[in-house]
Amino acid sequence: MQFFYHPHLFSDNIVLSAEESNHCAKALRKKPGEYIFITDGKGNLAKGKLLNRDWNACVIHLVGLQENYGVRKMELHLAISPTKNPDRMEWLVEKSIEIGVEKLTFIICEHSERPRLDLERMKRVGISALKQSNTTWLPYMEILSYRDFMIQHGDVQVHKFIAWCDDSNEKQLTDQLITMNKVMLLIGPEGDFSEEEIQLAKHYHFTEVKLGNRRLRTETAGLYGCCVLAGKAEEK
Amino acid sequence: MQFFYHPHLFSDNIVLSAEESNHCAKALRKKPGEYIFITDGKGNLAKGKLLNRDWNACVIHLVGLQENYGVRKMELHLAISPTKNPDRMEWLVEKSIEIGVEKLTFIICEHSERPRLDLERMKRVGISALKQSNTTWLPYMEILSYRDFMIQHGDVQVHKFIAWCDDSNEKQLTDQLITMNKVMLLIGPEGDFSEEEIQLAKHYHFTEVKLGNRRLRTETAGLYGCCVLAGKAEEK
Questions:
Q1: Residues B34-50 pLDDT 10s
Q2: Which of A33, A76, A140, B201 has the smallest set of CB atoms within 10 Å of its CB?
Q3: Closest residue to B212, CB basis, from A100, A215, A224
Q4: pTM of the entire structure?
Q5: d(CA B14, CA B50)
Q6: Best to test chain A binding among B172, B224, B227 (most A CBs inside 10 Å)
Q7: How far from A117 is each of A81, A85, A112, CA to CA, in Å?
Q8: What is the pLDDT of residues A33-52, one digit of tens each?
Q9: Strands B159-163, B207-209: parallel, antiparallel or unpaired by DSSP?
Q10: Contact: B227, A232; criterion CB under 8 Å
Q11: Strand pairing partners for A61?
């Protein structure tokens, strides 16, 4: 089963974007009358019949819609510093969507090697990952400075974890009991969070955790978090 | 700190391979008299002084050796079916070494899309990953048919898990109590294990587990296993 992407599914007929139409009619050679599945990245999955064969504008007549298709009980908000090489962030976006993440904030920290990121490109990578992995949830993505992140999200009532390389800390993320269905996990840059950033996280009652016992690269640490929490997602 | 690789460290002087010499003298411009660190991929880390500046044959005088440098208490033996696209197995080799894996068997299953793999290439990828992630353990790698794997390894007294997509099975890998320090995890091909393969695993007392609640790609499933077990590696 191959999913297509369209941002709005609540109408009788939709027109796929040029890119999606090309994929549908040209690459996969779908013919008028054939049924396809379309997700909006918001947890909805529609079934629709292809009406034409236009490589730039496939018209789909929607015949059915399932809400909350494969949506997890857990909401993971991953906040991670961009890496110097943007390919490594694309890789993280792709793999984290496959494993499960509901929200992605790229946080610009004091030691972040790259203070910006092409968010539109990340969203395109996300849509591609969504289709490939047959999931229906495209995480909301944003870029914020560390301080703005804390002001906007620091006060929410969720499980809040910050991963950093403090040798005196022995708490493993994998051992944490997850009782709420919302989790926030912060991953710092290669040079780690600054002392001030750690203090701010403590002020907002983040729990400091370790991700295994090796010093992982930023993007590997992010994926590690998604993996460990994915197994806990259905425990509640 | 940058690690170099040499398979034998128990002598006074060693000569780096052409590839390593090039990396050391040409790319990183190390000069005679400078100290470098070398691992043999067997848990040993040596410190040595560069004696010459030959881009093809750097001579290193070893001055110190630390055994069991960063070696984990857990031994993870990951057995995984090769994917159709070998790039995805290279990716798994690279990332699993970063997170932690002690042995890698590529198992040829009934539904494996690719019945072979360039093992030498995987070892080269492994050495590169070893150096990049500053670890000292290069997993032993082999290719075996599923049946031969079971004959050779099925009887060992370790925690044995087999991951497969049976909806009636609710046991998550992340919830398993790991009391022994040796773990074996089997990951099947995209088309999953055959019924006969599952029966053989049951005969050898493998525990069936789930890896989260999504159907992951083979290589993502492998990495998921490494992540979940890495957090448990120091619990014993």
A1: 999 999 999 999 999 99
A2: A33
A3: A100
A4: 0.84
A5: 10
A6: B227
A7: 10, 10, 11
A8: 999 999 999 999 999 999 99
A9: parallel
A10: no
A11: A13, A49
